[in-house]
């Protein structure tokens, strides 16, 4: 076995690189994951930079689907549900971060990944479950890979639908699936960029386009609001799982927060009642709730999967916004996919390969992931349902179930508190994640299969 050349970000991160940690609402953009490699607190993020990173979690594709989520829940349930579910997820995030910090201190490890934290936690739980330590560690990797791969599938659908919208007006009437096939080649070209620092300009452009685009959308939403009475306050319960998955996809940003806790100059300022995390997430959650509510109020029962589809088609400004979002998401594709490649390549493939073949295999892996995401998008070209499925299946486990398991295991040798209140709290996390995750996954898959069956029935 030849010597392995591990690629690491050895240089000091500049200000604009540190501010890119929250490029998307996700379990950690690759830039955020790399930022944690700098353990030098002197060169770490300031409180303001960390606050900006938390805020950036609120500007992604998930926000565009929030008005449609309110259509499924009703405006009253949507408002209450967004704040309640998001606060619940934030609470679970606090508990997980607390345990990860304690594990780092106990094991004298300055940086502990989510996978390692789960493995260590299970080893501190009941002895008869110790054999599950490694399987649960692998599960974390699988879920992280599935999540970021799912985000890329959502991106392909979003870009293709945006291009079709513009193409139908100015060029030709093509099926959206043809656009998905056409963008595969340029996506592969960006995905073959191995140096993370080379992706920094893409992230900067993406952020500028997203912020500008949201400003224009808000202008449209607040213009000539209709009567409020016809809106449904509560929708049937069977529609709630779609709302659940969409909110999880939009709000959950644990990876970014984990990275911030490792790269801040004063990490103790992140947590606490008035810490950076709570301050930023209050703004983010409020923005999502207001955006979803106003979007549903503006377009009512006609609210589309993406609010962009509701903008005036004939106006040049709305067309420009559609193009800006398509370009922004295109530039974000490689950033999201970097996480999937990093986990698969560095943890599983690279250690097993000789240096002679490693470069070729890595390129094949990158190409295969792009092609796979395009094929999934072609089969299931529904932005809202794909987004809800990814949130329900992956984030319910990563954001609720696994934090609950970690908390139970780490408190096993201690005390669960008066009346076993901490045990009940963790069981509530697990039950809520199971109920919402299973329901959201089943409803999303069932609806996807009904609309886009793999085997079509003969008429």
Automatic annotation (TrEMBL):
It comes from Drosophila yakuba. Its main location: membrane. It is found in: Membrane. One of its GO terms (molecular function) is L-amino acid transmembrane transporter activity. One of its GO terms (cellular component) is vacuolar membrane. Signal peptide: none annotated. The keyword Hydrolase does not apply. The lineage of its organism: Eukaryota, Metazoa, Ecdysozoa, Arthropoda, Hexapoda. It comes from the Eukaryota. The keyword Transmembrane helix applies. This is Amino acid transporter transmembrane domain-containing protein. It is a multi-pass membrane protein. Residues 47-444 form the Amino acid transporter transmembrane domain. Keywords: Membrane, Transmembrane, Transmembrane helix. The chain crosses the membrane at residues 50-70, 76-97, 136-158, 178-193, 200-222, 242-260, 281-299, 319-343, 363-380, 386-410, 422-449.
């Amino acid at each position: 076995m030849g010597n392995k050349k591990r690629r690491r970000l050895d240089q000091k991160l500049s200000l604009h690189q540190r501010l890119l940690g929250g490029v998307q609402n996700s379990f950690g953009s690759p830039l955020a994951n790399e930022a944690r490699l700098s353990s030098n607190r002197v060169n770490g993020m300031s409180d303001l930079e960390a606050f900006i990173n938390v805020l950036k979690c609120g500007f992604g594709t998930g926000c565009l689907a929030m008005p449609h989520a309110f259509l499924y829940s009703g405006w009253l349930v949507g408002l209450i549900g967004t704040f309640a579910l998001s606060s619940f997820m934030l609470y679970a995030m606090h508990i997980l971060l607390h345990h990860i910090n304690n594990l780092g201190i106990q094991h004298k490890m300055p940086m502990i990944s989510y996978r390692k934290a789960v493995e260590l936690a299970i080893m501190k739980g009941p002895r008869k479950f110790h054999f599950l330590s490694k399987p649960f560690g692998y599960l974390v990797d699988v879920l992280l890979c599935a999540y970021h791969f799912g985000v890329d599938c959502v991106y392909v659908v979003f870009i293709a639908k945006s291009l079709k919208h513009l193409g139908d007006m100015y060029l030709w009437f093509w099926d959206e699936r043809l656009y998905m096939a056409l963008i595969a080649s340029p996506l592969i070209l960006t995905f073959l960029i191995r140096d993370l620092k080379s992706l920094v300009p893409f992230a900067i452009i993406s952020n500028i386009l997203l912020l500008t685009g949201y400003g224009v959308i808000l202008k449209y939403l607040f213009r000539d609001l209709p009567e409020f009475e016809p809106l449904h306050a509560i929708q049937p319960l069977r529609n709630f799982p779609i709302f659940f998955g969409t909110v999880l996809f939009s709000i959950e940003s644990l990876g970014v927060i984990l990275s911030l806790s490792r790269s801040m100059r004063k990490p103790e300022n992140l947590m606490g009642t008035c810490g950076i995390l709570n301050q930023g997430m209050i703004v983010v959650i409020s923005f999502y709730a207001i955006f979803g509510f106003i979007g549903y109020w503006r377009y009512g029962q006609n609210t589309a999967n993406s609010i962009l589809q509701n903008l005036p088609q004939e106006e040049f400004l709305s067309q420009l916004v559609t193009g800006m979002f398509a370009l922004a998401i295109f530039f974000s594709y490689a950033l999201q996919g970097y996480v999937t490649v990093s986990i698969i390549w560095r943890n599983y493939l690279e250690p097993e390969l000789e240096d002679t073949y490693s470069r070729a295999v890595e390129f094949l892996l990158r190409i295969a992931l792009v092609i796979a995401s395009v094929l999934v998008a072609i089969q299931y070209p529904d932005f809202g349902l794909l987004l809800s499925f990814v949130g329900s299946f992956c984030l319910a486990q990563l954001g609720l179930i696994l934090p609950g398991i970690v908390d139970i295991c780490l408190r096993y040798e201690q005390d669960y508190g008066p009346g076993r209140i901490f045990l009940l709290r963790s069981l509530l996390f697990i039950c809520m994640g199971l109920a919402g995750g299973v329901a959201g996954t089943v409803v999303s898959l069932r609806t996807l299969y009904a609309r886009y069956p793999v085997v079509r029935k003969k008429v």
